[in-house]
């Protein structure tokens, strides 16, 4: 497992290069918007400001420079920007 640095709206966390970004953000206590988790709805889209990802095929429309966090795995350190302020959720005791 390769460690990568994920910066989201200026907040930096440590991630890995084998899980989708959406899962990693949730594990870190962030709550990005999503609906389908399979690349159809586009609710989890964000701007990839820096770095590279492996993004699986998706049906949602994306503008240049945008990715779907549910379909993207980081290949390097990445910087992401969401158009909204991410909510931080409290972690359960078992997490």
From TrEMBL:
Keyword Iron-sulfur included in the entry's annotation: yes
Record-linked InterPro entries: 2Fe-2S_ferredoxin-like_sf (IPR036010), 2Fe-2S_ferredoxin-type (IPR001041), 2Fe2S_fd_BS (IPR006058), Beta-grasp_dom_sf (IPR012675)
Pfam families in the record: Fer2
Membrane-spanning parts: none
SUPFAM superfamilies reported in the protein's UniProt record: 2Fe-2S ferredoxin-like
Record CDD domains: fer2
CC cofactor: [2Fe-2S] cluster
Residue intervals of the 2Fe-2S ferredoxin-type domain: 2-86
GO function terms (MF aspect): 2 iron, 2 sulfur cluster binding; metal ion binding
Keywords: 2Fe-2S, Electron transport, Iron, Iron-sulfur, Metal-binding, Transport
Family: Belongs to the 2Fe2S plant-type ferredoxin family.
Protein name in the entry: (2Fe-2S)-binding protein
């Amino acid at each position: 497992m390769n460690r990568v640095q994920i910066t989201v709206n200026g907040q930096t966390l440590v991630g890995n290069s084998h899980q989708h970004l959406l899962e990693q953000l949730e594990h870190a206590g962030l709550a990005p918007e999503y609906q389908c988790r399979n690349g159809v709805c586009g609710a989890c889209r964000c701007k990839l400001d820096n770095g590279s990802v492996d993004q699986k095929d998706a049906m949602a429309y994306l503008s240049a420079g945008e990715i779907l966090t549910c379909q993207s795995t980081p290949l390097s350190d990445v910087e992401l920007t969401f158009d909204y302020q991410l909510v931080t959720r409290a972690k359960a005791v078992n997490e």
